[in-house]
Design brief:
By secondary structure, the protein is an alpha/beta fold. It is built from 8 helices and 6 strands. The chain has a 4-stranded parallel β-sheet with strand order 2-1-3-4, sandwiched between helices. It has a two-stranded parallel ribbon with strand order 5-6. Helix 4 runs antiparallel to helix 5.
Length: 190
């Protein structure tokens, strides 16, 4: 499954299930490096062959919606790799939670406080300003209107970005395309 690559695995992190390429992860790589955490790889979209060979050489796997990757999760567990579910880092609260989970999973409780506080203090004023300017605007959030294989569109039942929209003060109305039968309607409601 993975070729052993010499080197220290401690404080190395795999990010699994994140949409986008390498440019999207410039900020997380930089912020995590400040606290001594190295992003080992971003899977599957930004990982080349060498990254896949190196996947077992991390001490933590942070996964967006691990249920989407049952075979990969089973293989990582078989190698005694730690796995945590994290939110998409979209929106201030989800991003704060994302960094806190990653840093505290590797460095212990309270280790993320300084980095996360600086990050959230800087951006919370912008979120507050946006909320005051746009609070109450109705927003239609379409789920399954466009079936794609994009992780961002299917993870967390297609609701991965909902918390960010609510945080910004939008009144969100979910529009769900699907089968009209009663069983399907109950599943969507759940």
């Amino acid at each position: 499954f993975a070729v052993e690559v010499p080197g220290e695995c401690r404080d190395r992190l795999n990010l699994i299930g994140f949409p986008g390429g390498a440019k999207v992860f410039a900020e997380p790589r930089e912020l995590l490096q400040r606290v001594g955490i190295t992003v080992n790889g971003v899977y599957p979209h930004a990982a080349g062959f060498d990254c896949w060979r190196n996947i077992a050489n991390a001490s933590l796997n942070a996964v967006v919606d691990s249920g989407m990757y049952p075979k990969l999760m089973r293989r990582l567990r078989d190698r005694d790799q730690a796995i945590i579910n994290v939110p998409f880092p979209v929106g201030l609260e989800a991003t704060r939670s994302f960094y806190t989970l990653l840093i505290e999973s590797l460095h212990g409780e309270g280790a993320a406080q300084e980095l996360v506080a600086g990050y959230t203090e800087r951006l919370s004023r912008e979120v507050d300003r946006f909320r005051s300017d746009f609070k109450g605007i109705k927003f239609a959030y379409a789920v399954r209107m466009k079936n794609t294989y994009s992780i961002a569109n299917v993870a967390y039942d297609g609701l991965g970005f909902l918390s960010a929209l609510l945080e910004l003060g939008f009144e969100v109305e979910l529009l769900i395309q699907g089968a009209p039968d009663a069983d399907a309607q109950q599943a969507y409601a759940k």
